[in-house]
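Example: Murein L,D-transpeptidase YafK.
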Amino acid sequence: MRIGAWVAQASPACDGGAFKDKLLFNGFRASTLVWGARFACWVWSFALIRGSLVRALMTSVALSAGALLAGCNSDEIGSLATNAKANQPVPPKLLAAMVEKNMDLQSPILVRLFKQEAELEVWKQDRTGRFALLKTYPICRWSGDLGPKVREGDRQAPEGFYAITPGQMNPTSAYYLSFNTGYPNAYDRSLGRTGSELMVHGDCSSRGCYAMTDEQIAEIYSLGRESFFGGQKSFQFQAYPFHMTALNMARHRNSPHMAFWKMIKEGNDHFEVTRQEPKVDFCEKKYVFDGVKPPDAKRDPVFEASSKCPAYVIPDEVAQAVREKQQADDAEFAKLVSKGTPVAQLNTGIDGGMHRVFAARVPNGNTGLSEAGPTPSVFNPPERAPGTIPLDHVNPPRGSVTSPDEPLTASLSSSSTRVASAPSGESEGFFSSLARKFGGTASADATAADPTPPPIPAKPKVADVKPSKSAKTETKQASAKPPLKPAVTETAAAAPAPAATPAPAQPAPSLVAGAQPIVSTSSFDSRFSATK
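Written out as structure tokens, the predicted fold is:
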């Protein structure tokens, strides 16, 4: 069976390696299918004369058509690993983390992304059926402002909930590897929003996308590939402006996007209390999470983004847990507002953000709109950057890093622990000079602009999701699987790749510890030449 071929076309969007391709169905072109249809018509006419014989022939044709469609799906899956870049194994460190967290290599994944913190999280389903955080990646570059994408060319990176299928994975991206976020979804289209080819990709340069390093996207791609090989139809991509905490909502309470953010926060709350991928639908130009048919209904509700919402209910266990979390968040929000929590500045004119671990290694680099997360970042400060930084064409944000009264390390409370991906140990002298550069005090471990930190919110209740008596819910419990079989041997990549020796005139790129060897990429200019 011939693997489906990718035919790359030039694209004006951020990813030059667009994949609006023509897939060959088991090696047959569309013209072959046309002639096949004509033949079927002829056979149907002949059936009027030779009934019994032709019925047998038509049954055979139907079976062949079914096999053809199955081959289509197989080609889509098979095309995920058609070259050396796309076929890199999952690193041994991640395999070890999966074993420790009771996860299978090919169990489903879910991706969450936060602009302000410039972090991308990969969650993976463990053998209990719940999702747990596997690894957090710092984002090298994202463009635009906090808020959803509205129109083509606005440089905004999308926010919302999207489904990533095997067909959206691009092994031949001009930015090393990538996957299409799926923007615009049905909700975006119902509002007339435009845009295309919005990616998560490598190369650390963004024009409306989320850019990682090549080493990072290779890991993320491999995790998605293995989940598809394990039978996952699509994985959910959740893109947020920031962690949806009461403090962040209070700081951005004057934003014109607040109504939209409250709507997608509901989906965030569903995930956080259940640790299950929320079912996402759209109606009346809004999101609906975990909606199922009412107890007296005979059919599942049919949702259409621009139409009136059908009758639906949310399972009682989920609805109750979400309600309790939202009440706690609302109370904390009101307390923060009454205390006079400063409001974040609007319309800063800064184009996007960059995680501080990268900004610290780029000449004249800064974090732009990105700030530290709910705790001092797990990447603060690593000995080496998590991947190669293309210093010849990386484009850090322009403008002040933070306001004068906010130090580089933000004072945000936390109710969770992050997974570190790099060791710590950078000298204080570097951060002292960095703080002086932006007008702050020379303190590497500063944690607050206000000496009195806000109270830590209560940890959200995690609901034990069970089938409701009044509504049937989809069973998402993962069945037990045999022990994990590593995708690579311990001797193949147990030793970390050595860091390059810095040249006298220019800082040398460094590699993440334990990273797999990767295929060299071309320069940014040559990559973009296909779209000019």
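The domain at 87-339 is CATH 2.40.440.10 (L,D-transpeptidase catalytic domain-like).
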